[in-house]
From TrEMBL:
Domain Hcy-binding as annotated: residue spans: 9-348
Cofactor note: Binds 1 zinc ion per subunit.
Organism of derivation: Brassica campestris
GO term, biological process aspect, one: methylation
Cofactor(s) demanded: Zn(2+)
Protein name: Hcy-binding domain-containing protein
Keyword terms of this UniProt record: Membrane, Metal-binding, Methyltransferase, Transferase, Transmembrane, Transmembrane helix, Zinc
GO molecular function: S-adenosylmethionine-homocysteine S-methyltransferase activity; zinc ion binding
Entry binding sites for Zn(2+): 241, 333-334
Amino acid sequence: MGLEKKSALLEDLIEKCGGCAVVDGGFATQLEIHGAAINDPLWSAVSLIKDPELIKRVHMEYLEAGADIVVTSSYQATIPGFLSRGLSMEESESLLQKSVKLAVEARDRFWDKVSKTSGHSYNRALVAASIGSYGAYLADGSEYSGSYGEDVSLDKLKDFHRRRIQVLVEASPDLLAFETIPNKLEAQACVELLEEENVQIPAWICFTSVDGENAPSGESFEECLETLNKSNNICAVGINCAPPQFMDNLIRKFSKASKSFKQSIALYFLVLTIYVMSYLQLTKKAIVVYPNSGEVWDGKAKKWLPSQCFGDAEFEMFATKWRDLGAKLIGGCCRTTPSTIKAICRDLKRR
């Protein structure tokens, strides 16, 4: 199946969902709820080695909650990371492929069960292969700063990501999900790799943000999206693992001018044209948002810091607003759970 047909799968899913599909929630969070010890440089990917059946169980829990897209456990699964644990290249690549296989098996088992039940309201979910940023591999919190150092070039980032992308593509997921990208350079590296490798699987690229306005590097999203908007490989762009309080502004920034400005423009054309132009859409790609709970991760201390958080009730309340602002894919990231996704589904699908 070529890129165009694969992209149509996502478009069709969004249409079936009434204009907004639901992505799953925090994977590592749910692993920890089940007792998994993941305080490890591989983070949630350590369960690919220690407890693959638990990974499948978590996928099933998100599917049961109503997720239309499940994201694999490969966010921090990298070949250098596995090699540093003493695994061989063959074993490392096998674990990457396993991350997709486990998600596909869970999806297929769940769909085989519910599709035989009359009156169900589920969709056959898509599987997105997670590709964490270079900063996620470093496990030092730099995915939230974008500060990789002067020696990290475009070519170095491409070399880092290349084999992982090749292996994940060979496992045939429905989508690729580049996550917590902190700067324009890494986004460009991802786009160029997809083209160089002639990847026929559509991808989304999600940045994060620490100020609700720009990428962690300080670069504007207008700068960051410039290359992505020109790529046929990129089907969606957006934000993950940023506080939910940032989503309203960031969706507006990514999507389009508010209707109230458009309605007023006839009366105040000269003044408001300048104002509206600053809000005109930065992208025509689908917009994906899956924020964390609002807690702040201390990458050096390896712990979550207390802060203003959204509970399931707030996610349920805001999901419709995010959809109405222009988001086509909505889910949760760190510290969200299947109950969060169930709440989002209640709001978006009235499940």
